[in-house]
Design goal:
This protein is mostly beta strands. It has two domains: 15-97, Elongation Factor Tu (Ef-tu), domain 3 (Beta Barrel); 108-169, SH3 type barrels. It is 5% helix and 42% strand. It has two helices and 13 strands. The strands form two sheets. A seven-stranded antiparallel β-sheet has the order 4-3-7-1-2-6-5. A six-stranded mixed β-sheet has the order 11-10-9-8-13-12. Strand 5 and strand 6 (69-74) form a beta hairpin. The longest helix is centred in the middle third of the chain and has 5 residues, at 80-84. The protein is elongated and about 60 Å long. The chain starts with 14 loop residues before the first strand and ends in a 6-residue tail after the last strand.
Length: 175
């Protein structure tokens, strides 16, 4: 079920940020892209892109891995001045552009907003966002206070129920 918009009427489109435009590359409209996808060039599989706060889709005309990053030319971007105007823009796609998650795998964006409670039914709050520490992912749960819970399956996270919009965790509510 899609989230509703601020007026409660129309569905809100979830945007997922995949990276941002870092700089220009050459004089023919190419840009350097910092990609948060793994592998980095995986960002090229997602088109069209939404840049910044715009809802106007921009299609990738060409792109490739380059050095430690990615370089891209977007349709309609044919010179260095046009490319320079894009520097600093976030690159996002709508949630529906992502392939289905495998069993017991989740997109972080789908966990945001879910309620979190202990196995004993104590409400801890809602998932605000997630981040990675390198060792594991972390749920940021906001309720009467903010909690950082490791997203470790079975050790802390026991179940994710999208129908009930609930994550059950093995966690001491006083911690």
């Amino acid at each position: 079920m899609p989230d509703s918009g601020p007026d409660g009427q129309c569905p809100a489109v979830k945007r997922l940020v995949l990276g941002h435009i870092d700089g220009v590359y050459g004089v023919r409209g190419w840009v350097k892209v910092f990609s948060e996808t793994m592998p980095r060039e995986g960002i090229l599989r997602y088109s069209p892109w939404l840049l910044g706060n715009s809802d106007q889709p921009r299609r990738v005309a060409e792109g490739r891995a380059h050095s430690k990053g990615v370089v891209v030319r977007l349709e309609g971007c044919d010179d260095r001045d046009q490319a320079q105007a894009l520097v600093g823009q976030e690159i996002a796609v709508t949630r529906d552009r992502l392939p289905p998650a495998k069993a017991d795998e989740f997109y972080w964006i789908d966990l945001e907003g879910l309620a979190v409670e202990t196995l004993d039914g104590v409400a801890l709050g809602q998932v605000s966002h997630l981040f990675s520490t390198g060792a594991n992912d972390v749920l940021v749960v906001v309720g009467e206070r903010e909690r950082l819970l490791p997203f470790t399956w079975d050790a802390v996270v026991r179940s994710v129920d999208f129908e009930r919009r609930l994550i059950q965790v093995d966690w001491d509510p006083d911690f």
